Amino acid sequence: MTLAALGVSAAALGLTLLWLRSSSGRGFVARRVESAVTKQIRGRLRIGAITRLSWAGVSAHDVRFAAPDGGDVIIVDDVDMAIRWGALLRGRLISPTATARGGRVVLREDRRGDLTIHTAMQGRAPAPSGAPSAESPSKEATVDLQRIDVSDVTLVAAVPGVPDARVTRIGGALRITVREPNGDLRLTLDDLSGRGHLDTPLPISLRLTGGTFRFESAGAERVRADARAVLGDNRVRIRCTVRPRGDAMRVAVRLALPSSAGPLDALPAIAQATALDLTSSSFDFTVTRD
């Protein structure tokens, strides 16, 4: 009787594993992953399709995090992700390694003036009294994507009162963490590369050759980017910070030209700084020399 029961159990397990690898089984897992993560955050996770499923992890297509207002804040075209299934059963998405190809990150404000990428990742439950402060955050992570090697990603920034910015063909090593109890989001991209475009009166385009981008929802600086870049024929350094100021965001960009740059090389950038200081109270653009 025991042998028969073991045989039935083994057969059932085998059939279950075969079903999970089928199209309907992968769809079931996709919905379970969506539900487990969406229950923890104010936004929503959507998975277009799981294309591969194993004990090690998944491959998926068209993965989207959306803000409460429905707008997408993170889109990944294709991802291969190692997953800790035990943590997922407890409602936490933990991944030690992943590879992402193609997609978009959107920085925009909602009606209250908050960045939607922050509101999307905030925890659903209110923080309990006596919760740890930003200076001593909880160690519990609702989402902990520890290293994602990204390529061909686009960052779009559209903040009122500030020139629109776009960085395309982004590559680097990305980490995304959402910690309890407040749902504080930290997104860090190291080894940054890509091509940037700033829609100033005279548009500025440059090629990023290294650096770091950081978004931190609980920080005094929501966004900070420090990068090396090529602007025209010059190698420059660029720093961008975004800080909350009342109900709006204040963006500051500092462009450091090399000491060898001639006056004509610096003239377009200086013209941008002068024009923007006169037209926007939310945007500071300064030019310095190393």
Please provide a written account of the structure.
The protein has 290 residues and is an alpha+beta fold. It has one domain (7-126, 138-233). It contains five helices and 13 strands. The protein has helices spanning 2-20, 23-38, 85-89, 116-121, 263-279, and strands at residues 44-53, 57-66, 72-82, 93-95, 98-108, 141-158, 165-179, 184-198, 204-216, 223-231, 234-245, 248-257, 283-289. Strands 1, 2, 3, 4, 5, 6, 7, 8, 9, 10, 11, 12 and 13 form a 13-stranded mixed β-sheet that branches. Residues 3-20 and 129-138 have low confidence and may be disordered.
**Helix count, DSSP H or I runs of 4 or more residues:** 5
Count of discrete domains: 1
The assigned structural class equals alpha+beta
Would you report the number of β strands? 13
Report the portion of residues in β strands: over 45%
Return the string of H and E elements. Answer: HHEEEHEEHEEEEEEEHE
Largest sheet: 13 strands, mixed
Distance between the termini: 82 Å
Q: C-alpha Rg, in Å?
A: 22 Å
Question: How much helical structure, as a percent, in the residues?
Answer: 10-25%
Enumerate the spans where pLDDT stays under 50 for 5 or more consecutive residues.
3-20, 129-138
| Shape assignment | elongated
> For the residues shown, what is the average pLDDT?
78
